[in-house]
Design brief:
By secondary structure, this protein is of the alpha/beta class. 40% of the residues lie in helices and 19% in strands. It has a domain of 128 residues: CofD-like domain (Helicase, Ruva Protein, domain 3).
């Protein structure tokens, strides 16, 4: 089964590692959100792409939730000493990758090509594609003004209520050709358990027209009315949406024919099916590497039986 996974940098990235442990490399493509990207000191930082690469390479820092395990921060300390703002933490090894990506881009590579070069350097066999080679930046409207995604998420620690979102650059952005080929050729397109507003909407904004609803499955990022990590539930509520598995189903009913919900949300099974969606129930909480593989295997098995 050929699978294309649409992914952010947390739940989707964890599912990516589970799928990569099961599927042959040629059968898995991961399409990453780049709406969170931002430049720091002339370096393009792509948090969701980087989290996927680091997880697949086995070097992700699960303790901090970002960057490389056992990294040091000497460069960041020097920047602080020189009076620079250091609210966005970049480790030394992390900076090494950003330096290489910046050099590749300056040398004329498309972002997709640069990411492929990095993946090859890590020894990653599956394909990882950014959603677009064109810059798209998520901007968040708050009561105190508009912030970049990283200013809001990291700098402000998600504290200001979200009043609106804007995708700067979306009008001229085109999907990466490799991402288009991946979703068109996939037997199943899976939307990972990622934040619908921050991680998935930007991907769908550039790639949504290429999706065949009958081949799309979404894994709910909301379990029992809570998000396991990150501000998904609070953001949905701020935006006036129902922050439940049923609310997630309503949001994706026009995009995905199938949704996977957690056992804690069993009571929502029939209301979801009333939306015209297949609804699968599973243990969607991934505890460690074993949990990632378990969910990936269960999901693949279930999708083979979905008519």
């Amino acid at each position: 089964m050929k699978v294309a996974l649409l992914s952010g940098g947390t739940g989707g990235a964890r599912l990516a590692t589970g799928l990569a442990a099961i599927l042959p490399p040629d059968d898995l493509s991961i399409i990453a959100n780049t709406g969170d990207d931002e430049e720091f000191w002339g370096l393009l930082v792509s948090p969701d792409v980087d989290a996927i690469l680091y997880r697949l390479a086995g070097v992700f820092n699960d303790v901090t939730g970002f960057g490389v395990r056992n990294d040091t921060f000497h460069a960041q300390s020097m920047l602080g000493l020189l009076g620079e703002q250091t609210w966005f933490q970049l480790g030394d090894r992390d900076i090494g990758m950003h330096l290489l990506r910046a050099s590749l881009l300056r040398g004329g590579m498309r972002l997709t090509e640069a990411v492929a070069h990095l993946a090859q350097g890590f020894g990653i066999g599956v394909s990882v594609f950014p959603m677009s080679d064109d810059p798209v930046r998520t901007r968040i409207t708050t009561d105190s003004g508009e912030l970049s995604m990283q200013e809001w998420f990291v700098g402000q620690r998600c504290a200001p209520a979200v009043r609106g979102l804007r995708l700067a650059g979306i009008e001229s952005a085109r999907p990466a050709p490799e991402a288009v080929t991946a979703v068109r050729g996939a037997d199943a397109v899976i939307i990972g358990p990622s934040n619908p507003l921050l991680s998935v909407d930007p991907i769908l904004a550039v790639l949504g027209d290429e999706l065949d609803r009958e081949r799309v499955t979404v894994v709910s990022p909301v379990v029992g009315g809570r998000s396991l990590k990150g501000p998904t539930v609070s953001m949905l509520r701020d935006m006036g949406e129902e922050a439940t598995a049923l609310g997630v189903a309503r949001r994706y009913a026009g995009t995905a024919a199938t949704i996977v919900i957690d056992r804690d949300d069993w009571a929502m099974l029939e209301p979801i099916r009333a939306l015209g969606m297949h609804a699968l129930v599973d243990d969607t909480v991934m505890d460690g590497a074993a949990g990632e593989v378990r969910l990936a295997a269960s999901l693949l098995h279930a999708l083979m039986g979905v008519e």
